[in-house]
Structure formats: structure tokens, C-alpha cells
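Extended Data, panel c. Modelled sequence:
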Amino acid sequence: MPKTTAGHALPVRTPAALIGWMRIIVERLASLKLTLVIIVAFGAGILLSYSGQLDGTWALAVPLALFAANLMAAVATKPVFRRQRALLLFHLGLIAIVLLLAAGRLTYLRGSVEIAEGAAFDGQLTAFEAGPWHWSGLDSVHFSNDGFSIAYAPGMQRDKTRNSIHYVDADGVGQRGEIGDQTPLVLAGYRFYTSPNKGFAPTFVWYPAAGGAPLLGAVHLPSYPIHEYRQAREWQLPGTAVNVWTMLQFDEIILDPKTTSEFRLPNKYQVIVRIGDVRREMQPGEAIDLPEGRMVYDGLRTWMGYTVFYDWTIHWLLAVCVMSVAALGWHFWRKFAARPWNA
């Protein structure tokens, strides 16, 4: 018998005893009372995440993982699952669904980005939220906004957005296409949709006095038409502390609520620029010289806002859901086909 240094006997745990303890743990884990506790925790996690008191990712992922463990323990300990294959397949599918939901919550990304007409996506999002295990692959996504058209019905009812793009596919081959609010561009697992956010973008070329390559940039004015009377924005010249206030001014009606219309650039407009005490109404090609460099107004463009979504579990969830529904259908067919329905 094993002894401690003090000469006292240590209990010996045989394999049978360990198996017994494991069986007890698994049976406790399969308890319906634990299922109820997990469901309550899941509901509480949803409420706390929506109220902002708890991080939504872990508030949902942890109860989902516990629910999957609870289901696996039930499948392992309940003889009914071994006797009925259809029921076993359904519960295995349910376990897979719960695990996929938890994995999707830990690895998802949801964000937005604005891209001017003629500009390319640079891998950076304007705003985003992501799961703690998301590994960004946006650096491998390359596409450009070639312009868009949006028709409006009377009453300012927005029709489909048709956004022309060109992009590089997974094989490195250049492609052209069209996307919209329901038709995404899918690259490296990321789905890019157009959004209701769009507007006008005065474009400038900045020539630094210190030398270096000139920089072409677009100033995204507030979204139109929701901010129709606030078409102005302050921004900063690259590499300087110089603030530039820019406003787009026009009188014509772009989107007429009384008739059909289409989003477009105004035919007659003024771009007003104010830098300190200097105020200028600029035409394409005109420049403002500053000690820090030269700013040239290039012209007026549009910008489009995109919503970005990533969740690698979507297709797997669809496949597992189809399998689970088929298994449940098989189970009930066998159950009710055993005797006539009118018996």
C-alpha cells in the first residue's frame, strides 16, 4: 500500500472508480435542470448584451457551448438515442448547430466602409465589431467603386442600388461585376453590400511643399438626402495641422418626392473652401497655395457606403439544419407510420 512521508496510507483510485466518477459527472451534465439553467443564462446574456452591460460575444458563446455539452451528455447517457437513429441524428445536428453558432459568434465581423467613385478599398474599415477570435483577411481583398445608380419612386421610395465594381478574384484575375443591397461581392469570405448611405465627394490633389508624391483624396460630405441641408465638412490636409472647411452648395432638386428621379451629381453647384481667413469658391483645376503646399480642386464625385459581413459558419449551418430537419421528419414518419392515423 502506498505511503506518504508521514507514513499514512493514500487511497487508491482504480480505473473502475474513475469510470464511475466520470459517469456521475456526465449524468449530472445531462440533467434537464441544467438545461433549464442554461436557457435562463442564455436569455439573460441576450438582455445584458443588448443593454450594454456585458460583452455580447461571451454572453452568448458561453451558454451555447454549455448547451452543446449538455446535449452531448444527454446523447451519451440516454439509451433512447441508441435505439432510434433518426432521433440520434437530429440531436447530433442540434449539437452541431449550437457549436457552429458559438464559433460564429467568436469569429464574426460586421463593419462599414465608405469608398469614393474611382477609388479602391484599402483594407481599412470605417467602423466595425468583431469576435475575439476573428483573424482579419481584409488585406487580401481588392476592389474599386466604378460608380452607382439609384432610382427613386414618388415619395422618395428608394429602388435597387446598382453599383459597378471591378475586383481581383481568388486566382488573381481581374473581374467586373455589379452589386447591390441584396447582391454582395464575396471575397476571402467577406461579403460587401451597398447601403443606403451615399453622397457627394469633392476631390482634391495635395502637393506637399516638402516634396514627395502628390496625394489624391476625396472629402466625403454627409450622406444625401438624409443630410440634404448639411453638405459641409471640416478635414485636415495630410501631414499637416491645417484644417480645411469644405461645403457643397446647389439649388436644383436632385431627388423630387413628387415624381420619379435618380441620384446624380448636380448640374450647377459651387464648392466653397475656407482655410483660416481664406475663403474661395473653387472650380476644377483651381488651386490654393499655402506655406505647407499646394491644394488643387480636382472635381466632384460620389461616394458609396458599404456594409461588410463575415461569418464562415453560414453554409455549414444551412447544411446541418437541412440534415436535422430531414432526421426529425424521418423520426416522426417512422413513429406515425407504425400504425394507421385513424386508429
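The chain has a mean pLDDT of 88. This feature is highlighted in the accompanying rendering.
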